[in-house]
Amino acid sequence: MKRFLLLLAAAGLAWACGKDGAENPAPKPAENIEIPASVAPPVFDEQGGNMSLTFTAHEAWSASVDATRASNWCSVAPESGAAGAVTLTVTTLPNDTPDERNATIFLKAGTTTKTLSVTQKQQDALTVTSSKFEVGAGTGEIVVELKANIDFDYKIGEECAEWVSYVGTRALKTSRLVFRVAANEELSVREGSILLRSSLGDEQVKIYQQGADPALVLTQKSYTVPAAGETIKVELNSNVDYTVQMPEAEWITEPAARAMSTHTHYFVVAANDEYDGRTAEIVFTDKANNLSETVTVTQVQKNAVVLAESRYEFGTDGGKLDFDVLTNVDLTVAVSDDAKSWITQVTTRGLEQKTLHFDIAACSQETERTGTIHISGGGVTQTVTVAQGSLKEVLEKERAALVALYNATGGDNWANKANWCSDRPVSEWYGVTVDEQGRVLTLVLENNNLTGSIPAEFCELGSLIQINFSDNPLSGVIPAGFGNLSNLTNLSLYNNGFSDISAIFGLPSIRCLFVTLPGENIPVEIGNLSSLTDLQLYGNDVAGVIPKEIGNLVLLRNLDIVSPKLSGSIPEELFNCTNLEYLRIYSNYGLSGSISPKLGLLTQLKRLELNNNNLTGPIPEEICNCSRLVNIFLQENKLTGSIPEGLGNLPELRHFIAFNNNLSGNIPASILNHRLWDVEWALITENNNFNMDGITIDAVNFSVTDIDGNTIDSKEEYAKNKYTILFQFSPYFGDFTDMKSFIEDIYDKYKGKGVDVIGYSSGHPGASADLASMKKYVADNKIPWRNILWTETNSIIGQENEQYHQDSGFGPYYPYHSYPAYTVVDSGGKIVFHDFSLSGLTGLSAFLADHTGGSGVYESSDYSKDGEVTALQTATRGNGINIVLLGDAFSDRLVADGTYDGTMRKAMEHFFSEEPYKSFRDLFNVYAVNVVSKNEAYGSGAQTALDGFFGDGTHVGGNDDKCRQYAMKVPGITDDNIDDALIIVMMNRTYYAGTCYMYYPSSGDYGQGLSIAYFPLGTDDGMFGQLLHHEAGGHGFPKLADEYAYEEYGQIPWNEVQSAKQLEPYGWWRNIDFTGDVSQVKWSRFITDPRYAAEVLGAYEGADTYWSGVWRPTYNSIMRYNTGGFNAPSREAIYYRINKLAYGDAWAYDYETFVAWDAVNRTGNAPIMLRTPMRKPRNFVPLHPPVVVKRSR
User: Fold this and answer.
1) 3-state secondary structure of 501
2) ω into residue 1177 within 30 of 0, thus cis?
3) What global pTM score does this model have?
């Protein structure tokens, strides 16, 4: 968060009081509009016109007409006015419609609204909606619709009086006259009319009826014949000639053809001796008129009842019995008397339903039982036998399944194996619960050291509803029978090592699933588990995308997805899960894209955690539709834009965390006025870009005991000091030592000027909340100010705020997220300065200097030594390889007292303390150039000669052009040869960081290209040497890559691989490769060379900051943990470049010559030669990766 000064402006509020003598004001009217009782609603005739009406308004008034119905024909004037008596004119246009119409006038004054209705009469009319009707030859009806507001009657024309008759009327405002039209037996068309008569004139309706068409009509179109056969009679009526087309079926006899009038045909159907039915069609055709009719003859098969199986077996749980019956007769079903109590027929549906359904009840008896089901029909009977196993048999199988699990998963080594495999009931075995029959219901063996794999016998536990095997080193494949655990609803397999879990995607009833995924993808089959309400997916190696099929899980209420290598974006389909209450997709550093506006569809959402991803874009406004949200965590992303205005208005919101993004703009008033702002403002603003102008923040108030037992009351402290610095620290963080030293300087300088420091911490080395340990730590480090051990009962924010924060589930509350942090509070308890970075300390010093009358920043005045060059060493062999040493933030006094020169010489000695540089020291020229800076510090307000800066983490840098200008003050270094030089910049700050800037080469295969290595002085001499060896000796000179890796970075992207390969021909990155094949890596000959066996060379995955897809030569080296020397491929790269620069093209590389020289490293005591892998140094933090500048210098 940028430094800001918070100023509090006091504003006075004055209240006006009424004058004496105004105790009995005139009573105010009850309503602001009064309409006299004599004013009646206006009624207009169809011609329209004007009418006036009066009313009294006691405030300014307005009048309007209902815009949706009447504004096009009714208006009022005037439309507004002041208080007083009002005459309003209402105007209507002529009504040329047959319908009466109405309008509403709205009168408004103050809070009073009254309405008046306006009515206009209709015009007389008689309208027929249709004046022509066409009717088919058969009997029918016509309906004449007309609109009329006058009297009328009708008359049927004489030409059609015999075949058109009036049926009735169904009239409201529209009349419907119904007339029946008789069938036309003639072949010709006939017509008629109906006359509708009224005072306005007549309307005529014409009727046209078609004549009879050629016909070919069957009296019956289908016949069903029994299996024994019979003769069928087919009758048809026709007024055309026709022919009969017989089917190609030997079992129907063809009759003689007949034609005209009414006809009867006889067909003989032979007996059917088969069990299958048969069908044939007889077609009657008149080709002249394109007429056709078909008779379908169906003959059933011989009676049969056929069953697929005659015996079914069930376990003690019972279940559903469904079996198919092949039959052509009606069925009767009977369960044997001895089985009616436990076999129940669900439904039987006769011929059309061929499947019978039965429920088999659970068996609790000791012995097996059987029953029969008899299916009869058509004189045929079949019998089904149902056998059900005994409870005793099932319990024995379940006990055997548990024993198999114990044996297969190393039960003897379980953390708790109480009563397992003993003669005690399984209900007394550790982690097992059973039902009333003794069946195993739940199995909870979490964190119990189960190893191996789950045996197939385990799937005999058919009554299981819950399994929890989380936090066990289980492996192998989940047995296929897992999908048969039909009662299983809860399954927890978190933090296991299974290689295949596909069997779980067949579980029909699973509702809660917690699982660590194997492989690289979230299986799309997850979308098949439609009963899921709670899904938690984890996987360190899952690098794929979130599948869109997850949107099928519409019953989900809780979704957790955590995988540091996950890629892609959040699928839009996920927002189909509108029952979600908890959505937690976090710590997925490869997850990109924006937050979809469809988030607003999740109206049941209570908790949203999308933190620690790589999300971009704005926080969507639609988040405000999620009215049940309590907690929103969006920190550690790359979100941009502003906070939605209405976010703080969410009625149940308690916590909003959004630090470390790129958010900007004004903070909405809804957030500033919310309770959460008081306790979480820093968790919202840190490392964002909000406009903080005019925002005043109150410091936390507390009354606690310091580590010496003295009471510290914050209000008293603020009041007695001009400024109180609250220093929140944790010794675990690397910035602490450096920052503590700076705060100590400020404390010593300003404690006599009204400034005090109060430190507080919740942790210290060796204990998290131990008073004695913290007292010892403060004493050992000579911390001069008072310090508070912060606990829940000794809280610097008070119990109320502590409880408010912990209610979110966010954990212990800290006012400022970053460690360390320093906050300046003025005497009024207002925060006037806050920062958490080392660079901000310069600004703190300047602030105190400005506001206390003192100065804490030294400024140089003598620049006479600036640019002077000192030759620290001259090459005695070869061409002379140039190293230029520069310092930044060194003032004139540090140059004058020898500090600068001492730092440069110490850097030179460190550089040549490591092989191969040590052996070839005499090939190098080393120069120190004086660089005089104005100030001795970095940060806001400070100025250094090389514009050095400290960025995020261990990222540092400066002005490369200025560095080159100082380097070219060395005689003989010019633009033409500066690419052969190495520039090393020491930054005057006791800190751990470093970054090397490496410029693209133009030629050569020996690591060409200018490099500028920046790093601070470290906290001690050992750290100084490590930083120099890594940045200058490793990156800068030979162009080596980093060998450390971040797990959260996952697999190296394809484009990164291609970029790296572009530089390999120039001799860059000789210590990493993009294949794990030991026979193909760049250093393969070292691996197979027995002379290098002690160095334990191989292909170790993880390098160039990425966790996978890139390999390094050794477990450790200077390029990984900054310790242990350079490994063989790195030494070879350094050796190669030294000799190329020293001797040019006259020198040729020879592997055996290198190996002979390298004997000093192979036989020495370098830690990399130990066969026991080196451990990661305590509190190790990787340095920033080198920055490749894609342009020539």
Assistant:
1) coil
2) no
3) 0.50
Integer Cα distance of 672 and 668 in angstroms: 6
Three-state SS at 637: coil
Strands (DSSP E) found in 612-754: 616-617, 631-633, 638-639, 655-657, 664-666, 689-691, 703-705, 711-713, 723-728
- What are the φ/ψ torsions at residue 251 (nearest 5 degrees)? -90, 0
621/618 Cα distance (integer angstroms): 9
pLDDT tens-digit series, residues 951-997: 877 889 999 999 999 999 999 999 989 999 999 999 998 778 899 99
DSSP secondary structure string for all residues of 564-607: TT--S---GGGGG-TT-SEEEE-S-TT--SB--GGGGG-TT--E
Mean pLDDT of 496-510: 90
- The three-class DSSP label of residue 428 is helix
For the CA atoms of 676, 679, 684, 688, the dihedral, rounded to the nearest 10 degrees, stands at: 140
Structure tokens at 739: 């920052």
**CA distance linking residue 954 with residue 554, whole number of Å:** 45
Question: Considering Cα of 826, then 831, then 836, then 839, what sign does the dihedral take?
Answer: negative
717 φ/ψ sector (left φ>0, alpha ψ -120 to 50, else beta): alpha
- Comparing 243-252, 724-733, 1099-1108, 1174-1183, which segment has the lowest mean pLDDT? 1174-1183
**Are 1063 and 1188 spatial neighbours (Cβ–Cβ below 8 Å)?**
yes
Q: Can you spell out the DSSP letters for 257-300? A: ---SSEEEEEEEE----SSS-EEEEEEEEETTTTEEEEEEEEE-
Q: Are strands 512-516 and 490-493 parallel, antiparallel or unpaired?
A: parallel
How far apart CA 726 and CA 796 sit, in angstroms, is 10
Angle at Cα 819 formed by Cα 813 and Cα 820, nearest 5°?
120
Q: What distance lies between CA 1136 and its chain's CA centroid?
A: 50
Q: Which residues of 463-489 are buried (b: 16+ CB within 10 A; e: fewer)?
A: bbbbbbbbbbebeeebbebbbebebbb
Half-sphere exposure of 1061 (CA within 13 A, CB side): 11
Quote the CA–CA distance of 797 and 697 in Å, as a whole number: 14
| 314, β-bridge pairs | 388
DSSP 1086: H
Q: How many CB atoms lie within 10 A of CB 151?
A: 9
> Per the structure block, which two tokens stand in for 721?
């000091």
pLDDT in tens, 866-907: 999 999 999 999 999 999 999 999 999 999 999 999 999 999
Q: Give, for 1048, the enclosing helix (H) or strand (E).
A: strand 1045-1051
Contact 1042, 1187 (CB under 8 A): no
β-bridge pairing 432-434 and 43-44: unpaired
Residues making up the chain, counted from first to last: 1193
Q: Is the peptide bond before 820 cis (omega within 30 degrees of 0)?
A: yes
DSSP E strands in 68-172: the ranges are 74-77, 80-81, 84-92, 101-109, 112-120, 126-128, 132-135, 140-148, 152-156, 164-169
